[in-house]
Amino acid sequence: MAKNNVKLLGGWFSPFALRVQIALNLKGVDYEVIEETLNPKSELLLKSNPVQKKIPVLLHAEKVICESAIIVEYIDEVWTNAPPILPQNAYDRANARFWNAYIDEKWFTSLRSVVVAEDDEEKRPHFEQAEEVLERLEEVLNKGGEGKAFFGGDTIGFIDISFGSFLSWIRVTEQINGRKLLDETKHPSLVQWAETFAAHPAVNGFLPETDKLIEFAKFLKLKFAAK
């Protein structure tokens, strides 16, 4: 597939855009990333996603696909030359979608709230929710992985992409707050998984730099405080 037929409207800071990149990398698709600054939002973004006006957006020939999870599923169905991202079994596929939704609902919201919170008191319930998510995912990995490298088994799958796209933001949150989230004692399987995931050729070199993200996190905090 020629690069000019596949474009991703994304942002280097976005874990959701990163999901799409990882999926495309896994499938060996040649693509172009169009960086969206969001300040102001580009005409291309507003035209491509007029309903939500947010990234990521996949442009495939004349088709426009929005929402990270939907885009990843689309990629999985269109490019069948590489191992599947979603399980082939209907029950396992539904289960993977459930955990993706859980990560977006619980993990993303708690992590974002910790980043923009003003003080430790405000952060506390969000840290507790984040720790609960990690406990759940540790259980899922131990139960479903059965000693294998990824949530998806021997290869990166849907849950791996959903959670793994936040690895850099985990490091940012830990550094800003001087507090561990992924702990070797509490989450040994997740810690090992994170190292394996980050080293995979489809991921290595694509995770945002922590220092750069810390500066972006400071910008986000100021932005939320001004509202």
UniProtKB/TrEMBL annotation:
It holds the Pfam family GST_N. InterPro entries: Glutathione-S-Trfase_C-like (IPR010987), Glutathione-S-Trfase_C_sf (IPR036282), Glutathione_S-Trfase (IPR040079), Glutathione_S-Trfase_N (IPR004045), GST_C (IPR004046), GST_C_Tau (IPR045074), Omega/Tau-like (IPR045073), Thioredoxin-like_sf (IPR036249). Residues 4-83 form the GST N-terminal domain. It is found in: Cytoplasm, Cytosol. Its EC number is 2.5.1.18. GO terms for biological process: glutathione metabolic process; toxin catabolic process. One of its GO terms (cellular component) is cytosol. Signal peptide: none annotated. Residues 89-224 form the GST C-terminal domain. Keywords: Cytoplasm, Detoxification, Transferase. CDD domains: GST_C_Tau, GST_N_Tau. It is an enzyme of class 2 (transferase). It catalyses: RX + glutathione = an S-substituted glutathione + a halide anion + H(+). One of its GO terms (molecular function) is glutathione transferase activity. Is involved in the conjugation of reduced glutathione to a wide number of exogenous and endogenous hydrophobic electrophiles. Belongs to the GST superfamily. Tau family. This is Glutathione S-transferase.
